[in-house]
Design a protein that fits this description.
By secondary structure, this protein is of the alpha/beta class. The protein is 11% helix and 26% strand. This is Disease resistance RPP8-like protein 3. It comes from Citrus sinensis.
């Protein structure tokens, strides 16, 4: 039986509940005196961000020992809730602990945990015992640092497929090679300071499909030529990398790349050139953002044959789009922000072809 919490909900009816969802104030639920129940799922979907009392959280963990899914939602915890390690059936755990900097060792004893969701936590210290969490599949943090695996540990996180934000200091060959099935990874931090480890490690992720590199240092730039990306890559995003070299000649060789997002300050040059015949063979989505000085883009015949969507924001200095772009039969969506008059006039030829192109120019009235 599953229940949705309502103001007139009677405590007695909780006895047979296996799933419980809250849409109102969670503090009201925690203030109730519950009897021991076989509750398996607790989901807080309330929009409230009230702080929960640690004692109430501890009592909650004692009462609901059979939980498999625990989602505290937006409810704020000022500290890691004591007693949580007793919920050894847990497979999914979501907590909102903004102040958490060190991941507690007891958490690593949850051997059945598959998803650890703590998006508001920026963890710079993680216990070595995290390498014992063999069933772990998803790590969702604001940022997390993984420790080097102890020499006496023979295990690896073989089931881990998703890390939302791994600090660049943890991108060493010794660490990433212990994540053999990783598919989605976001790396954030000083990519210049740790470029040797990051560049050597990324190419060892043979099953990686989605990779995001975010440089958080204002004093350094990423050198793309020092990187080797695995051929399995399907989505790539670069942010604040401040590349001085044209990234296209290197990236167009990736055989499976479908989504490329060159975002905020990713490239500082004036020219882009997709010169290889048949370059970007699988690319469907291309976002060029915050390339403030871009004024020339050339593209060879047969490049990007499967492109469907293109966003250029802004394109204040771009005089024209590549002529071969209009030969791509799959192209349907084109968003241009702040196009100069010359480019806007060139696009008038295509604006009337509503049956083929969805062309959006921003702002509308300029």
């Amino acid at each position: 039986m599953g229940f949705v919490r309502t103001p007139d909900f009677e405590e007695e009816s909780l006895a047979n509940a296996k799933r419980y969802i809250i849409f109102d104030d969670p503090i009201e639920f925690f203030s109730l005196k519950h009897s021991d129940m076989y509750l398996q799922s607790f989901l807080n979907h309330s929009s409230e961000s009230d702080h929960l009392n640690p004692i109430d959280c501890e009592n909650f963990c004692k009462m609901f020992k059979h939980l498999r899914v625990l989602n505290m939602g937006s409810a704020v915890l000022d500290q890691y809730p004591p007693g949580l390690e007793n919920l050894f059936h847990l497979k999914y755990l979501k907590l909102n602990i903004p102040s958490l900097k060190c991941l507690p060792s007891p958490l690593c004893t949850l051997s059945n945990l598959q998803t650890l969701d703590m998006p508001s936590s920026y963890v710079d210290q993680t216990p070595e015992d995290i390498w014992k969490m063999q069933k772990l599949m998803h790590l969702n943090f604001g940022s997390i640092t993984l420790p080097a695996r102890p020499k006496n540990y023979s295990s690896s996180l073989k089931n881990l497929i998703f890390i939302s934000a791994l600090h660049s200091s943890s991108c060493t060959p010794d660490i990433l090679c212990r994540l053999p099935n990783l598919q989605t990874l976001r790396v954030s931090g000083d990519l210049s300071c740790y470029h040797s480890g990051v560049s050597k490690s990324v190419c060892e992720l043979h099953k990686i499909e989605c990779l995001k590199l975010v440089n958080e240092s204002k004093l350094s730039r990423m050198v793309l030529s020092e990187y080797q990306f695995p051929p399995s890559l399907m989505q790539l995003s670069l942010s604040n990398t401040e590349l001085m070299e044209d990234p296209m000649p290197m990236l167009e060789k990736l055989p499976r790349l479908q989504v490329l997002k060159l975002k905020q300050n990713s490239y500082l040059g004036r020219k882009l050139a997709c010169v290889g015949s048949g370059g970007f063979p699988e690319l469907k989505i291309l976002h060029l953002k915050s390339m403030y000085w871009l004024d020339e883009w050339t593209m060879g015949a047969g490049a990007m044959p499967k492109l469907e969507s293109l966003i250029v924001n802004p394109c204040a200095y771009l005089r024209k789009l590549p002529e071969d772009l209009w030969c791509i039969k799959s192209l349907r969506k084109l968003d241009l922000h702040w196009p100069q008059t010359e480019l806007r006039q060139r696009l008038r030829t295509f604006e009337d072809m509503e049956w083929r192109y969805d062309i959006q120019l921003y702002p509308y009235r300029i």
